[in-house]
Amino acid sequence: MQNMGLGGGVMMTIYERKTGKAYIMNARERAPGLAHSKMFKGNANMAASGGLSVAVPGELMGYWEAHQRFGQLPWHELFQPAIHMCRNGIPVNYRLGRTLADAGMGPDIRASPTLSYLLTKGQGGNLPCQGETIRMPELAETLSTVASCPRGAWALYDGELTDSFVEDIRSIGGIITNEDLASYRAEWMEPVTHTFADGNTLFSAPPPCAGNILVFMVSVLEGMLNNSTKLDIFDLHKMAETFKFAYALRAEIGDPAYVDIDPVINKMVSKQFIMETKNKILRSNSTYQNSSYYGVRYRTSDDYGTVNIVILAPNGDAVCATSTINTLFGSLTASVSTGIILNNEMDDFCSPEIVNSFGVPPSPANFIAPRKRPLSSCCPTVIVDKRGDVRLVVGAAGGTHITTATAQVIINNLWYNYDIKQAVDFPRIHHQLLPMHLKYEYGYPKVGVKYCATSFYFS
After folding, report:
1. What is the pLDDT of residues 165-222, one digit of tens each?
2. Most distant CA pair in the chain: distance in Å?
3. Active site residues
4. Where, by residue number, does L-glutamate bind (predicted)?
5. CA angle 432-437-441, nearest 5°?
6. Is 399 annotated as belonging to a binding site?
7. What's phi and psi for 78, nearest 5 deg?
8. Residues 108-123 pLDDT 10s
9. Is 135 annotated as a binding residue?
10. pTM of the entire structure?
11. Per the annotation, does 325 bind a ligand?
12. Which of 147, 180, 112, 78 is nearest to 328 (CA)?
């Protein structure tokens, strides 16, 4: 509820065992037709919340397109559990309860007439607590309408629900039109692929997602790590430096329908450039505080929340889906008539007037344009072995942390031979170059933390 939903977008990597092929479903949100690069000039906060922050959602259309191509169950059956929960009560679990009780989030929700209406009705005006339930009858009716519609998702995009949905968005200051919804298309894309030295093959999502960044990370690190089950502090250094080089390249990527990204993509897969990067890392046990050393020219915006789900079917098929409305409760607004909580994905774009505190200009590749999709860190990934059997299905949540988290789970499982639970549970590090500091999770081995402290990672 707080991280994803029909008001957001989704990226899927779908692997079909019988053909040995992977397919990418791009149902990322896109900018409205009236959007432009200077729309947030003088008020960057408007990109983070409120009607202007809402991009055209793609989630439901992504589900419809995926079902049209690969679905087995009848469309209407897929919605019944969610409809039942919306009508009879959605349990408030620990994570949702903690979010609603947060001293910063609670007042923001109450200040939003639309969102507070959805979350407090039937609660005496109070936000629900852990252990209580939330009923969402409007969303139940929306799901019922979509489930019974012969055209599926088009009930929302160009059908019975469209006018009221658009009217709700316009009433909170949004600029999405009926035409924006009617013209929205989820896109099938070719996956990013990488074959490891051992014959395993990786499939992930291309730009505007981060599959190419993930492939660059594992390409640089392959053959450089200790490959033991015990933490090697020099492996830690190699990972941190690789992440920094990768995030410098990320700033050159945008929606390929609007930006020529071939030069940077070709650079990232160049064996010569990968080897040059390896050599830079190997010939020094130090890190550098000057971001220009890593080749950064621009900065990108941070993305935030997300939910990731992985499914491995009995027939060997696999799906990895990453879904988001961006920050917690998205734009802090909702469509009251449909019960849909709305995204704030416009905040994932860069704005030309905003130079960050490091003096690095924003990335032109990620400037707003009509119908453009913003850059994303998500990288839903499927890895198969030489026979074509699924070896690993992996993705992550956490905004800009997604790509480094996914890389480390792959490293832990494929190279350190951790089982799935160990690979996911082992504490991780994160470095995205700007800001120039290393993050580590609670429980990270002390020897690694001590090494980082003495190697000037903590500035």
Report:
1. 999 999 999 999 999 999 999 999 999 999 999 999 999 999 999 999 999 999 999 9
2. 64
3. 306
4. 28, 324-326, 348, 376-377, 399
5. 85
6. yes
7. -65, -25
8. 999 999 999 999 987 7
9. no
10. 0.95
11. yes
12. 112
